[in-house]
Automatic annotation (TrEMBL):
Protein's recorded name: Glyoxalase/bleomycin resistance protein/dioxygenase
Classification via Pfam families: Glyoxalase
Signal keyword on record: yes
Protein keywords: Dioxygenase, Oxidoreductase, Signal
InterPro entries cross-referenced by the UniProt entry: Glyas_Bleomycin-R_OHBP_Dase, Glyas_Fos-R_dOase_dom, VOC_core
Sample GO molecular function, one term: dioxygenase activity
Organism: Psychroflexus gondwanensis ACAM 44
Domain VOC, residue spans: 28-149
Secretion signal, residue range per the UniProt entry: 1-19
Length: 151
């Protein structure tokens, strides 16, 4: 019986010892940066197609645009580097909307091709968790996913 009580006490206090470990720091997402050919063309795409807002910058930031993703998150568009960027659909920016059907209709109205993940044009992908999603590309070929919010 004494051994059982001692074992229970050790188990209970082991959480206290483990819980005393302190993390030196924590991280949170701040921004994603994309290298683009023409910062103005890309900014127009992100503001017109995705309804995102430009974050004002000083006039000397000529080849840079910052776009708000909401909640203090940002997309930085940089027209500084000239190297060709190669990417595939597995590397993408994913955004969610409560009005998924309206967004898909906007893509259709603007003649922006979208697909499911395998690449079937004008098809909506259904994830295993029931979330709908579409994939399309920005003017520089970066992939964007827009998905529905699971209610």
């Amino acid at each position: 019986m004494k051994k059982a009580i001692i074992l229970l006490l050790l188990i209970q206090f082991s959480n206290v010892v483990i819980g005393q470990e302190k993390k030196e720091f924590s991280l949170s997402f701040n921004h994603m940066a994309l290298s683009v050919k023409d910062v103005n063309v890309s900014a127009e795409f992100y503001t017109n197609v995705l309804n995102l807002e430009i974050i004002p910058l000083p006039p000397e930031a000529k080849n840079v645009k910052w776009i708000s993703l909401g909640d203090g998150k940002e997309l930085h568009l940089l027209s500084i580097f000239k190297e060709e960027i190669k990417t595939d659909k597995a590397i993408h920016l994913a955004l969610s909307t409560a009005n998924f059907d309206a967004f898909v209709q906007k893509l259709t109205t603007m003649n922006i091709e979208f697909s499911d993940f395998p690449g079937n044009l004008n098809k909506i992908n259904l994830r295993p968790d029931g979330i709908e999603q579409v994939f399309f590309q920005d003017p520089d070929g970066y992939w964007i996913e827009v998905n529905s919010i699971n209610n």
